[in-house]
Design a protein that fits this description.
The protein is an alpha+beta fold. It is built from seven helices and eleven strands. The protein folds into two domains: about 150 residues, no CATH class; about 100 residues, Tetratricopeptide repeat domain (Serine Threonine Protein Phosphatase 5, Tetratricopeptide repeat), CATH 1.25.40.10. Helix 2 packs antiparallel against helix 3, helix 3 packs antiparallel against helix 4 and helix 3 crosses helix 5. The chain is elongated. It starts with a helix and ends with a helix. The mean pLDDT is about 90.
């Protein structure tokens, strides 16, 4: 009887602790990327339209001009790994809530310092804003059923990106700007002391970012010291740096060496890149 009693107690305990799991009405989501050298992450809860009118007048779920937590539950949090500029406004590294005031053709967006406020928009304190700005809204041709936030449109130089908020038939974007030059310069100074091979990366960075071409040439030459058969990709970059220094004859000679080495390696990309470079040297 004692064993039977223990079994009953165990069964009752299991039933008491068991929970029915069902899908969340507004599931959690996140998106992250690196812009330049800066980590950017957004955590949010994305509700679905479910046949409702989302933005607008009258019976819309989110009336024009009303503050919105930009998601469900505790709202939307954005995190910057470094100091950034948001729509040209300086924003220190850290965590912020995104609050919005949707409009028919324009939204007001705020980055809020006190993340403990969450979805309690009634306690909003303007003095705790890190940034407040306006952006134009766009109409989407395809319906977005579930609120979706993305980080994209990263520029070719990796200095800017755009955060897009899209739901129903509306989209808004705001820009994030980063400055990685200070980090890179410190890295160059530290890493070249430890590993001379890093002079190559430093030289290419100077070339690509319009910095001192003479310094770039000095570093590329250091990276090639003692290398009797330098690879075609290093020679190609040296030719580009020589061109930036106004030495077209030297650039042509180095590019020819890169071209021949690329042919031996069977790399058509560098063959074409060298031929294109040589057209600019004549």
């Amino acid at each position: 009887m004692k064993n039977a009693f223990l079994i009953v107690l165990l069964a009752v305990g299991l039933i008491a602790n068991a929970q029915v799991q069902t899908p969340q009405a507004s599931p959690a989501g996140s998106v992250s990327t690196v812009v330049g050298l800066t980590d950017v992450k957004i955590d949010y809860f994305h509700p679905s339209a479910k046949g409702r009118k989302i933005f607008g007048e009258g019976t819309a779920l989110i009336p024009y001009g009303s503050i919105w937590r930009t998601g469900a539950n505790s709202g939307t949090k954005i995190t910057f790994g470094d100091d950034v500029k948001v729509e040209g406004i300086d924003v220190p590294k850290g965590e912020y809530l995104i609050y919005t005031w949707p409009g028919a053709s324009e939204w007001t967006i705020s980055l809020y310092k006190d993340i403990s406020l969450g979805g309690n928009t009634g306690g909003y304190d303007k003095s705790k804003e890190a940034a407040n700005f306006k952006v134009k809204s766009e109409k989407l041709t395809s319906k977005v059923e579930t609120l979706t936030i993305n980080i994209g449109d990263i520029s070719a130089d990796s200095k800017t990106a755009a955060v897009q908020i899209a739901w129903e038939n509306t989209s808004v974007k705001f820009t994030i700007g980063v400055d990685y030059d200070t980090k890179v310069m410190k890295s160059i100074e530290a890493s070249t002391k430890v590993n001379p091979n890093n002079y190559f990366s430093a030289a290419v960075y100077f070339l690509e970012n319009g910095k001192d071409p003479k310094q770039a040439l000095e570093w590329i030459n250091k990276s090639l010291e003692g290398n009797a058969n330098p690879p075609y990709w290093m020679l190609y970059q040296k030719a580009r740096i020589q061109k930036a220094n106004g030495d077209k004859a030297g650039a042509m000679s180095t590019s020819n060496a890169s071209l021949e080495a690329a042919k031996k390696a069977g790399n058509r990309d560098y063959e074409n890149m060298n031929m294109d470079l040589q057209k600019t040297l004549k």
